[in-house]
């Protein structure tokens, strides 16, 4: 997170807000707690870690102490100039090294040091044909330095794949071949083939966290950039029939925040709902939210684990609102909250595929007054409110029936009874790409529920509710896999 963003707002009168106060204390905390800067020891070798992105470059000068712990000597970074933003990735990495070496020249000149980078850009710099004056200057500047550039192990995917304990089994099966079953090597990187999807790279455990962070950054991953106002979440409520949606940006996502938004955004505006469906996030299952629902006579429902289809309407709306915001936001997607209301309006006044009517019309009984329009038949439209709702309800039931038939065709009905032995689809959570054993079990069916869910007896009297499309009869699975604890899996 960029803690200094609230202090660097241009062309606006500066005001000391709560966000500024929080950022100020966070900066103090970061500067006064480990990792702290250490004095350089010129009897020990120095190491320079560099990196580059689409917005800036940075370098960290560090050394190792007697216990082989990294001790940072200095940090440096700067934003890219407009012309530098057009550089290719390797050229940016070269720029980061050259700039960082110049910044730390008093520490490095006349001494051997090692540069740690995502790639090996100096090899690119040495091998490329000299066509620009800039490249010549870079070469000359580094020629007077005793530098050894190495590739950062964290980014050496092929190497980390071969060191991963789970992936070693696959490499053992491959042997000298480049392909085995659905597994194959592409540019020395282990991949897996899929029938319905593109080929996937098998991610080693050491890179799971960084890959997830990369894939979820930005609006396209379903997450939002942190705005200068501090907002990095959106709380969304959608109405099942009218498809009307309410959304509010927030800087925290705890039970107190959810409860407050539920009251102000939904209950105070639209009255108490009959049912409230959410996923199994802790903030939605908290006692405070349950108490509000009980007091307002709202039936609180939760989806089953890893079954997003149960709340598909809201999941689909999330994608829609992100697509709309893309058309308004700046290149860095940092001002998304300023356009959230207008994006909501664009969605609300557009006819929905299911009802063939806009959420606005189903809520207010009339079409919205848009620029250049003036409806003279508002009273007539409101009088036909009941007919509009009945038509929408009839249409929605018809569409849902067709969707249900198509979905059920993919999953032919399988009957389960109490005490049946079943297996559970274990490819859920953060590391499912690393798993060969799809079906975990067997487990005993403790209870058959009337909503396509089964309650499985896991271990020590504990149970878990799972949707039927995640379950198979034990005899249907060929591979005999020892039961693994799924109680710790992320719901």
UniProtKB/TrEMBL annotation:
Question: Residues in domain Integrase catalytic?
Answer: 200-367
Which SUPFAM superfamilies does the record associate with it?
A: DNA/RNA polymerases, Ribonuclease H-like
Q: Do you know which Pfam families this protein is assigned to?
A: RT_RNaseH_2
Annotated TM spans: none
GO MF annotation: an example: nucleic acid binding
Under InterPro entries, the record lists: DNA/RNA_pol_sf (IPR043502), Integrase_cat-core (IPR001584), Retrovirus_Pol_polyprotein (IPR050951), RNaseH-like_sf (IPR012337), RNaseH_sf (IPR036397), RT_RNaseH_2 (IPR041577)
PROSITE patterns linked to this entry: INTEGRASE (PS50994)
> Some GO term, biological process aspect, for this entry: which one?
DNA integration
Name-wise, this protein is: Integrase catalytic domain-containing protein
């Amino acid at each position: 997170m960029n803690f200094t963003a609230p202090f660097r707002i241009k062309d606006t009168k500066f005001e000391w807000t709560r966000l500024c106060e929080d950022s100020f204390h966070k900066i103090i905390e970061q500067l006064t707690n480990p990792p702290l800067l250490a004095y350089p020891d010129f009897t020990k070798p120095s190491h320079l870690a560099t990196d580059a992105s689409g917005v800036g470059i940075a370098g960290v000068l560090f050394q190792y102490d007697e216990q082989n712990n990294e001790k940072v000597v200095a940090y440096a970074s700067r934003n890219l100039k407009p012309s530098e933003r057009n550089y290719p990735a390797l050229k940016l990495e070269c720029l980061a090294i050259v700039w960082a070496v110049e910044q730390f020249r008093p520490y490095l000149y006349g001494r051997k040091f090692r540069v740690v980078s995502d790639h090996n850009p100096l090899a690119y710099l040495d091998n490329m044909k000299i066509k620009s004056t800039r490249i010549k200057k870079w070469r000359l500047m580094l020629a007077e330095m005793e530098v050894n550039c190495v590739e950062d192990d964290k980014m050496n995917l092929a190497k980390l794949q071969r060191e991963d304990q789970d992936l070693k089994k696959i490499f053992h099966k491959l042997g000298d071949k480049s392909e085995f079953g659905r597994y194959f090597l592409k540019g020395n990187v282990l991949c897996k083939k899929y029938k319905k999807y593109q080929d996937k790279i098998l991610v080693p455990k050491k890179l799971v966290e960084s890959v997830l962070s990369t894939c979820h950054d930005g609006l396209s991953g379903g997450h939002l950039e942190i705005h200068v106002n501090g907002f990095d979440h959106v709380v969304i409520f959608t109405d099942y029939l009218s498809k009307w949606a309410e959304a509010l940006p927030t800087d925290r996502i705890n039970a107190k925040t959810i409860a407050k938004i539920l009251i102000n955004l939904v209950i105070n505006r639209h009255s108490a709902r009959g049912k409230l469906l959410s996923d199994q996030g802790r903030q939605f299952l908290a006692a405070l939210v349950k108490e509000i629902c009980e007091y307002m006579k709202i039936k609180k429902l939760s989806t089953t684990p890893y079954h997003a289809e149960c709340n598909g309407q809201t999941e689909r709306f999330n994608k829609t609102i992100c697509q709309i915001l893309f058309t308004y936001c700046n290149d860095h997607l940092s001002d998304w909250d300023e356009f959230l209301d207008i994006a909501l309006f664009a969605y609300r006044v557009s006819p929905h595929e299911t009802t063939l009517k806009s959420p606005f019309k189903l809520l207010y009984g009339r079409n919205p007054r848009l620029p250049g329009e003036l409806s003279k038949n508002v009273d007539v439209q409101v009088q036909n409110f009941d007919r509009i709702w009945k038509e929408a309800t009839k249409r929605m039931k018809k569409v849902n029936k067709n969707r249900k038939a198509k979905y059920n065709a993919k999953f032919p009905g399988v009957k389960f009874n109490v005490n049946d032995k079943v297996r559970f689809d274990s490819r859920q959570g953060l590391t499912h790409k690393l798993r060969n054993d799809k079906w975990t079990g067997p487990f005993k069916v403790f209870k058959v529920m009337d909503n396509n869910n089964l309650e499985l007896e896991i271990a020590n009297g504990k149970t878990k509710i799972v949707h039927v499309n995640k379950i198979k009869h034990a005899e249907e699975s060929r591979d005999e896999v020892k039961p693994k604890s799924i109680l710790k899996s992320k719901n």
